[in-house]
Amino acid sequence: MPEQPILIIGGGPAGMEAARAIADLGYHAILVEKRNRLGGTPDEAGYAALTPDFRNAGEAMAEMAARIENNPFVNLKLNSTVTAASGSVGNFEVTIQNGQASEKINAGAVIIATGFQHFDPGRETQQYGYYEFDDVITLVDLEKMLRAHNVVRPSNGKPPERLCFIQCVGSRDRQIGNEYCSKVCCGIASKEAIEVRQQLPNCKVFIFYIDMRMYGYWENQIYWPAQEKYKVNYVKGIVTEVLKKGDRLLIRGEDTTMGRPMEIPMDIVVLSVGMEPSAGTCELAKIFGVQQNKYKFIETLGGALDTVTTSVEGVFACGAATGPADLEDSVSSAAAAAMKAIAAVRKHRPLE
Amino acid sequence: MIPSEALISKAKDRQFTRDPERAPTEDFHDILFDLEKEGEWEVQRVPEPYVEVETKYGRKKKIPLQHTWHHKSCGQCGHIPGYSTSIFWINRKLGFDYIDPTDQTSCTAWNYYASATSNAAAQAAVAMRNFAAAAETSYFPIIHCGTSFGHYKETRQQLIHSPELRRQVRDILKRLGKKFVIPEEIVHYSEWVHAVRDRIAEHQTRNMSMIRATVHPACHYHKLIAEDAVYDPEIYGAQRSAIITGTLKAIGVEVADYSTWFDCCGFGFRHILVSRDFSRSFATMRKIEVMKEEANPDVTVTHDTGCVTTLDQSQFAAQAHNRNVGVPVMSDSQIAALAMGAHPYKVLQLHWHSTDNKPFLQKVGIDTDKAWQEFEAAVEKLKSGEQQYLTWEDADA
Ligand SMILES: Cc1cc2nc3c(=O)[nH]c(=O)nc-3n(C[C@H](O)[C@H](O)[C@H](O)COP(=O)(O)OP(=O)(O)OC[C@H]3O[C@@H](n4cnc5c(N)ncnc54)[C@H](O)[C@@H]3O)c2cc1C
Ligand code: SF4
After folding, report:
1. What is the side-by-side strand order in the sheet with A248-255?
2. How many CA atoms lie within 13 Å of A278's alpha carbon, on the beta-carbon side?
3. How many beta carbons lie within 10 A of that of residue A157, not counting itself?
4. pTM of the predicted model, to two decimals?
5. Neighboring chain B residues of A150 at a CB cutoff of 8 Å
6. How close, in Å, is residue B239 to chain A by CA atoms?
7. Is the C or the N end of chain A the one with fewer CB within 10 Å?
8. ipTM
9. Is the distance from CB of A76 to CB of A33 less than 8 angstroms?
10. Which residues numbered 161-200 in B keep a CB inside 8 Å of some CB on A?
């Protein structure tokens, strides 16, 4: 009797990579994605270029999708989600819902790759005025404009003369309860700052930060070029509020290096929103009964040595469903999850 | 090129969804009731009929209409007695049953927020003593002061999470001969005013449409345990607390915005105690002057003892320096009562306020000289010993 297939939920970078790895090793994967296409948040939010190499995000996601579409080892179920699950490792019984239709499938192991959602700046940091001022936007909004080569003030359609990023919006904030660092926004903001300077050489660009967190090579790949080549101004000190002043915005905060309060007019304020677990991640955690951590990301139990094993045997999680992660992290943990899922299925293969 | 409108939405088109699931804290209601089941304490239910409002993350909060027990504030009774009188006056006009209790102690929040505090058990015991006093009457507590309100919510949080603290406080209450009982909701009086704003509007007798007001929300109302403050999608797109603004809109007052809306009134607890000049300059330069410059209001309306006092009584110092101040200050209960026809002195007791409010009253159509004479005549009766105190009939006469 052949092994049961491995069920993957979520068709973002992590889910796509897990499916590919399973197929490459000659096992069967069922991939359930709630949207009508693969590509995850980078596709849905319309990211322009990816860190660190400025690769076209659409192309990169399409390439990942192509490896599993029409792959005989991957059974793709788009517009679908998982609504119920029972059983245990070796034989999970899972209900998959597609519109009105629901079907039951059996799977030997499960990989949850349901990802993250962007922090909603209106939920807590109302002082930044995202839902009040047209010219306050998020990193994701700016990605869309960069992708279209049309960075303009939403209020009047004119290119900005001064644009700033506010870092750690919704992250590293004990008050809000998201004490964690979202890992990618410093790099993404710096990358977008470079792109703004490339597209609008006359626009002055500022980044207000607590401290800039650049992972590994991003330091040389993005951070130094942003300052030295593209003259982006990095200002240490967090902005406290965004106000309307005439037809511009006024940001108010503290310049901690200079040790004094500051007020600076801006045309566009970009909020560097971080990551929170997606609604799907919270739902799936409940359906499979896996532990979530205090921020509601899925808890993995192996610490640094095992980043994908959850509290339920045979259920693994990877990518941003387990915590803030960039693509590198997501794809690496997906491969690890694929490997562990196959091992779990083999160990529990029902006796013939 | 893709047109910019297609790329990016305007603020008004952005979809803001409030999701109770995503609140930063667990829903305390569930825990209150779980602890009640475990025999830890009793929960005093919000009496019917109540109005359900939505809090910051879309959780529901029940606001009782009647059968309310009014926990007052030391600063209020000393500085702005018309603030609570107005609340009672509105209750009477709406035909609601309430209690003006005598069995209440001061909350300990002033000391707490000025870092001159005792210990957690002592503070929680004071809160719970007051709640027990309310429960004994079977009337539901409504907290007048923003400071007590914030502090009691912090205390509730501590009690919920610390079995040891609950044990200590339960022991103290036992010695006082009081029950260990916590209200289902901690309700601020301005939430009640907000909940009855349409009824207030129905009883309105004075036209307020020529009035332009600014709003100062108390920090202790919407910044402490923020997930328990009232927000309404109709008001600032649920991006700022709906209290006061919603009430003013209901009575037809034009609400004008200004850029230091989120700022403190200047009170700041430690400041008012140890650095009073800082409070005065903050109140006048960061709040009143900014309002004047950007909105030029006839009045500014707030909902806390400390805020009314600081914003109102700091202006005299700035006036002496010829600064651009002079905005009358009052609570939402006072302006709501005024709209319903309350007497500016006998009910609102505006003579306790130090910034000149006559131009505002005259704009509402009140003959201030006549009103003052009426008030003096009433006071005469007290002076002569003919009467010991003013009655509600006197207030309405
Ligand atoms: C503003 C921003 C910009 C970024 N840019 C970069 C960058 O340039 N470079 C980089 O390395 N990283 C970047 N990242 C990080 C990157 O987006 C993540 O690392 C990556 O998307 C994580 O992949 P994932 O597959 O785990 O999750 P996701 O991309 O979130 O994918 C999850 C998938 O699961 C699906 N799903 C969710 N719930 C269900 C359900 N119930 N049933 C079925 N399917 C479901 C979703 O539809 C989605 O397709 C950025 C992040 C942010 C916040
Ligand atoms: S990556 Fe940068 S902006 Fe994002 S949370 Fe961490 S420090 Fe803040």
Report:
1. A239-245, A248-255, A260-266
2. 18
3. 11
4. 0.86
5. 1-2, 4, 7
6. 6
7. C
8. 0.75
9. yes
10. none
